[in-house]
Amino acid sequence: MRISILFFIIYGTFALKGVNGMETQPSGMEIQAHNSVERPLSTEELSRTPKSPEAISEVDTRLPTSLKPLRYRIRLQPFVNGNFSIFGFLEVEMEVLETTYNITLHMLDIITKNDTVKVLGSGGVEQRQVGIKSQHYDPVRQFYVAQMEEALMKGERYTLQMEFLGYLNDQLRGFYRSTYKDVDGNSKYFAVTQFQSTHARRAFPCFDEPALKATFEVHLARETWMTSLSNMPLAATRPAKGQEGWVWDRFERSVPMSTYLVAFVVSDFSYIASSSGEGILFRVWAQPSAIRQAEYISQLGSKILAFYEAYFNVSYPLPKMDMVAVPELQAQGMENWGLITLRDRIVLYDPDVNSVRAKEKLVEVVTHELAHQWFGNLVTPFWWDDLWLNEGFATFVSFVGSAHAEPSWKKMEKFTTEVLQKVFETDGLESSHQISLPVNNASEISEIFDGIEYNKGASIIRMMMYFLGEYTFRKGLNSYLNAFAYSNAEQDDLWEHLTAAAHRDRKLPESLSVKTIMDTWTLQKGFPVVKVARSSDGTSADVSQEHFLLMKEKKSCRTQDLRWWVPLSYTSQGEANFDQTEAIGWMKDSDQRISITSLPPKDQWVIFNLQQTGYYRVNYDDHNWNLLIQQLKDDHEVIHIVNRAQIIDDAMNLARAGQLSYTIALDVFAYLGKEREHLPWMSGVSNLSYVILMFQRTRAFPALKLRGIRIISPNRRSEVMCTAIKAGGEREWNFVWNEYLSSNAENEKISFLEPLGCSRNVTILSRYLEIGLNPSMGTRKDDFKIIFNSVAKNSIGRQIAWTFLTKRWNDILPFAKRKRGMLLRQVTLSFNTPRDIKDLEHFLQDRNTDLAEVTKTADQVKERARNNVMWMEKNFHEIVEFLEDHGYASPKLCYGIFKSVVIVNLLCVVHIQFSFHAFPGTGSFLTGHSFRGKPVSVLHECDHFIEQKNMFRFCMLLLALPMYPSTSPVLLLRVVVMRRPPPPSAAMPPSGQGQGWVGRCRPGRRYLNLPACR
Ligand SMILES: [Zn+2]
């Protein structure tokens, strides 16, 4: 309760202005902090009180179930331009569900004024006051408790009133303050809220659990030159009596909603208005100088809101929607009902400054938060253990929304590489967790906001949509949303409505429910690999399932019995019908193996998991793998684009897990030279990046001087700045840093942060990390993650970032401890030696390392590092020899390749310069013009050539060049994927014999630092 003590200091010099009833002017009011217990605790309370901080996680921090809030009235006067205090008044009407003597509410960083607390019977005509025996505060549970002199009777209603004092903190949670610089460089303050998950209690005492929905009437006091916003439209504004220059805004009473969705903003922001659907007022707010950059989200937001209304067939229930671009926000966006907050650097958009990728991110965030208006806001999980229902749906639906907003991006296809294949990596660890998790206290609740909840949630919802068919899926959703509107639900409720729809449309047999299927995906961690072993004539297959683990640790035996209800879909070479995505058959959780007949003869391939709609991997016998590889080489377009990406991802990960030889997996890459679609390339690049990461520290990476390339289209700008900083010194770094500081365009600023971490100068990198922790140097609190990751990704910076993290752990983001886990994950990605593991364990076991909110990440990070060590032992030499056997290990040849790459590079640039007019692309060309007043010299923009058959692979090489030197294994790997494989006569071990030649040395071939032969 550090803040309570602070209050006494603040209020000693501060004139009190009451907010109770808005017009009162209390004098000399007694303020009492409830940070100490005023009476002896009862035996029952004592038994619930922890003995030590470690025991906190075992304490039941849930509110008693005796009271239910019905209506809140909240008045807040935040002194945004003063000493950041908040005068508050709360009135909450409650219904008694079980007779009780106590009123228990959540409260944190607030002090109540004891003598203003009143409890009134509110059922009858006369409001009888109930005497209060005592009040106390329980800091462990974050409870305010008022004990009554008489029992509050079941079935009756009572109203609690109190005045309190709060504080606009600078910790990006609760009701907090933040600043931005206006065009003249003056600091402007504003106040904004972030209540999810358990921070509403920091702004006003409340029943801060998602199932305790109530209506809210919000009153905010503001200075006349500022604006206030809340979830509902403004109802009236009145001058604040006795306070010149202040007014009170009263907002309409809200629909029933959870406390974590209440929101306020007090600022001097400007807005753009549009309207959506049935006259819903839609406004986007941003700091005045940036409002023009909000045009795009203004159009996008209203369009998506109307689209979702049609998609769910449920109207948006509020009369307005405000979206506020906020300079400092813990998350990328927050879905507060009717008042969405978004991080301004993500959502403000200027096509001359932002890349296409940045625009995609923006659309992702906006469509995600808007989807929550239905999933989360209208229907809310009872408790945080079903958080995945919120986040999984919003993540999946955001792809549906993005596909509607920008059809050319093919977002529904990209789901596989951007979401599903990504989360496979975490969910393939033994230390992964089930999606539906029991959580109790605030720290555990915060910790579950991770990739599993979002990305696995979205992936299994997508799987469900495909096995039910979209029509049935949407009908089930509509019935679920209508049944639980303004109320709460759990996953079983959703399963029930989807089952009813599925049975009605005959998508599932009467004997099978959605719950039976989906419980296997939500109540256990991980996912299966389906193994397809075809008979010798090919016409039948033995299909089995097994828990997929990236690396089975020796002691592992715990999880081998996991099985799932797996929707099977497949096609064959003769049919090649990839649209049949509804399940043709099911593999039950009781089936370890089943037999499938009627497959084509053995000279034709089969592919399972069409369009990768199922949340599982597929492995085949070597013969079928080779048929698939041959098809890719002969005519890859016969295979659906998503399945091409799937084949690459499955093959590489099966090889990583030791279930397929790298010889086959790398052979899949051979066709990529002809691939013109993004998706398979994304899969390829992200999988190669693992190999790259492992190889990275086996050789130094000398910088490639690419001076001269200054500015290109926004889509490549970061890469080029990175190259310049890498090759340059203090001067170049300072140049970009000053660009960052002087830029007024928030959406542009973010593009400088990452390149600044590319320096190869140890002093600069250490200084950069320090700057990141010190917002007075010009960065923002939520920038630290970008700054840290940029240094951690840099091969020179990794050790600096690791040392920094371990030394400063407890100073880093103390208000968002969960984010430390993300930093830890990033910096340890390339840990692959026993020494690395020792360092990591030493750090994690240190008693001074506060692991609150990161315990699961810590386990995952340890497992990943151990996997990497095992991977290196097993695969490093196999891959090195694969390269050698393909003729890429000789320095002479490599020089030849390098030379040709340089020529290609030049050709590419020349070609682009002469012919870019012929390729109207999505990125913006800035030829012969200027970027922020500086001349643009060289262009090389490969996005425009993706459609150009022969140029694409050259451009991929070109892109690889600035990042990696020609002599590294990385480039060799990249060259491998560009080249056709050598004829069979080449010295390459036959497939399936990979194990036999792992780790063998080769006389005279020391190029890749292989152990020399004695
Ligand atoms: Zn969300």
Brief summary of the model shown:
38% of the residues lie in helices and 18% in strands. The chain is α+β, with helices and mostly antiparallel strands and 1014 residues long.
Report the strand count: 33
Q: Beta-sheet strand percentage?
A: 15-25%
Structural class: alpha+beta
How would the global form be characterised? globular
Oligomer: single chain
Q: Could you tell me which ligands this complex binds, including any ions or cofactors?
A: zinc ion
| Portion of residues within helices | 25-40%
* C-alpha termini separation: 68 Å
Radius of gyration: 30 Å
Count of helix runs: 28
Low-confidence stretches: 1-56, 699-713, 887-1014
Largest pleated sheet: 9 strands, mixed
Let me know the average pLDDT: 80
